[in-house]
Amino acid sequence: MVLIDREVMTWDRTAYAVGFRARLSETLASGVTTHSWRCGWEDADVELLESARHQRVLADGGEDDFEETWDLLFDAGGDARVHGIEFDENRTQPWKEGWIDADINLGARGL
Hints:
The chain is an all-alpha fold. It has helices at 6-9, 13-24, 35-59, 70-82, 93-108.
């Protein structure tokens, strides 16, 4: 038998956005965080870490096309758009493309 925590079954769009913005502002969680908050924080964390790694590779004269993390960053960008995070030119290319793709899909559905 698989036990599922009720918290996981309840998605909070606002908590996702708060967690995402908290990570971007380097704010630590105070008190109890929800699954939705942690997902937002983790998506922003991946974006920030990959962006920093990408900048280091370029600064060292290397080339980097996010081969190993493209899908993850693309999905994080799409999730950010769906949860009300505004577009940001300073994000990685895959994140921006995921955000734009989600924006087009939401517009096509009239949302």
